[in-house]
From TrEMBL:
Localization (cell): Cell membrane
GO terms for MF: transmembrane transporter activity
Protein name as annotated: Predicted arabinose efflux permease, MFS family
TM region positions: 21-42, 48-71, 83-105, 111-129, 150-172, 184-203, 239-259, 279-299, 306-323, 408-435, 447-469, 484-502
Organism lineage: Bacteria, Pseudomonadati, Bacteroidota, Flavobacteriia, Flavobacteriales
Length: 512
């Protein structure tokens, strides 16, 4: 009987995980390509502003996730888990595919960022309904005392989705020339998603409804108004707020710091070659992903609370030392330049606006194998540097290719951050499911999860990047660490609330 039950759960895990992984892939393609997208859908006059606008658009997808949680959570508690996350899968896949079809800013002007914004909002709404459904569906199939282990498989899907997005982008870059990728190849990862969505739809189509929900429905114990019962009931609302401020808020910022901010930091602040960042981040994710299962399993043995709080505390204490070490590891100020090999080339080149630019290219090599490329583009007007806001208009792009010793150092430092992620994220699905009754579970757990991850976590790349830029403009010697104050403060508040108010339940005797 036990063997049959396990087989049944693996079928549920496989179907749920594949769909959820694809939705995360769709959602994160945008973030993984943020640097490229900023040049396609936003005005190119100010690259920094364009990148911040891209991060803000990326963040919008997170901000609307709670609304998706409310809308689809209500549907899930009314009509069932299965059909609701079938709809979210198709909505996500369609929106992702269409982002890859939108003409650039140069072609259709401000309509381009507007369309991207709308589709990004649809992605956020879809993801807001997907996760709660998948986590609830798996948890309601899992045996008592093993909920942390089985739901932790769903927890791997966000990281696996990010990993696959990086690998698809890396493969596309390697197949195409840099010019082809920049012109149209960046759209390929968006188009690929439609195939994966189709396969996942066929798999999910044959799934059965959750036994817990089916039983509640047959007995007439489903909710007629999930929103009112979830948030209008003071007793249940207390647990919704505790889930948010004592768990998901801190979990959200740790998740996005350890994976997305780490990627953005290496590409934009450390100026490391984009393909190298994707590779080393991919390796760190592969090494770290099994620990979602480890900490999910461990939470069944010792409880969820102390594992999640431990992950937050380690992040709070170690983020600044980790990021300082990351920055110092690859900084060319700490390396010895081979001066004889330095090359500086200047040329005049016509730009897309059919005016002339003066381009200065500097190539440097260092004794440890690091290479440095700096391209300065000076916009010209009547043969002189164009003046904008009282300053010459100069765009500087730096690309650093690092050696394998530095790569492995960064892989280790990112891997440590991914471990923090697995500690806070591995047990949290089981933790949330166990907090709420079946008839309003989808709605009640989805909202705090998506506010914590969507708003507090999703805004992190934009806020932290803005803080770094401000610190740099202010002349702060350690400007690159300024962005870390946001996750440290949010995680600290969450840690205090969680330690005081969350109880460490006996998971072996917790029925749902």
């Amino acid at each position: 009987m036990k063997e049959k039950s396990t087989k049944g759960i693996w079928k549920v895990i496989s179907a749920s995980s594949m769909g959820t992984m694809i939705e995360w892939y769709d959602f994160y393609i945008f973030g993984s390509l943020a640097v490229v997208i900023s040049t396609k859908f936003f005005p190119a006059d100010n690259p920094t502003a364009a990148f911040l606008a891209t991060l803000a658009t990326f963040a919008v997808g997170f901000v609307v996730r709670p609304f998706g949680a409310l809308f689809f959570g209500r549907l899930g508690d009314l009509i069932g888990r299965k059909y609701t996350f079938m709809v979210t899968l198709l909505l996500m896949g369609g929106a992702t595919f269409l982002i890859g079809c939108i003409p650039s800013y140069e072609t259709i002007g401000f309509l381009a960022p507007v369309l991207v914004l709308i589709l990004r909002m649809l992605q956020g709404l879809a993801l807001g309904g997907e996760y709660g459904g998948a986590a609830t569906y798996v948890a309601e199939h899992a045996p008592v005392g093993q909920r942390g282990y089985w739901t932790s498989w769903i927890q791997t899907t966000a990281t696996v989705g990010l990993f696959i997005s990086l690998m698809v982008i890396l493969a596309t870059r390697n197949i195409l020339t840099p010019e082809q990728f920049d012109e149209w190849g960046w759209r390929v990862p968006f188009w690929v998603s439609i195939i994966m969505v189709g396969v996942s739809y066929l798999i999910r189509k044959n799934m059965d409804e959750s036994p817990v929900f089916a039983k509640a429905k047959s007995e007439g114990n489903t909710s007629t108004n999930p929103l009112k019962e979830s948030f209008g009931n003071r007793y249940n609302l207390k647990f919704v707020l505790l889930a948010l401020f004592g768990a998901t808020m801190g979990q959200g910022v740790v998740w996005y710091t350890g994976q997305f901010y780490a990627m953005s930091f290496m590409k934009t602040v450390m100026s490391i070659d984009s393909s190298q960042v994707d590779t080393l981040l991919g390796i760190a994710l592969v090494l770290g992903t099994p620990f979602f299962i480890v900490f999910g399993w461990l939470s069944d043995k010792i409880g969820r609370k102390y594992i999640m709080m431990g992950g937050m505390l380690l992040a709070i204490l170690l983020y600044r030392p980790i990021y300082k070490q990351m920055y110092e590891t690859t900084s060319v100020k700490n390396k010895t330049e081979i001066v004889a090999n330095t090359k500086i080339v200047s040329e005049l080149k016509e730009n897309k606006k059919q005016t002339m630019d003066s381009i200065y290219t500097t190539n440097k090599e260092y004794t440890d194998g690091t290479t440095f490329l700096e391209v300065k583009t000076v916009s010209l007007e009547d043969g002189k540097a164009k003046i904008v806001d009282g300053k010459p208009k100069i765009e500087t792009k730096t690309t650093i290719n690092i050696n394998w010793d530095d790569k492995w150092a960064l892989i280790l430092l990112v891997f440590i951050q991914v471990l923090f992620v697995t500690m806070v994220y591995g047990p949290i699905a089981a933790f949330l499911v166990e907090m709420f009754p079946a008839k309003i579970r989808y709605t009640s757990m989805s909202l705090p999860y998506h506010v914590g991850n969507g708003i507090f976590g999703g805004l992190l790349p934009a806020i932290s990047t803005y803080l770094v830029i401000n610190g740099k403009d202010a002349g702060d010697a350690e400007f690159y660490l300024e962005g870390l104050w946001y996750p440290i403060i949010i995680a600290s508040v969450c840690f205090v609330v969680g330690m005081i108010y969350i109880k460490n339940k006996d998971t072996k005797n917790t029925h749902i």
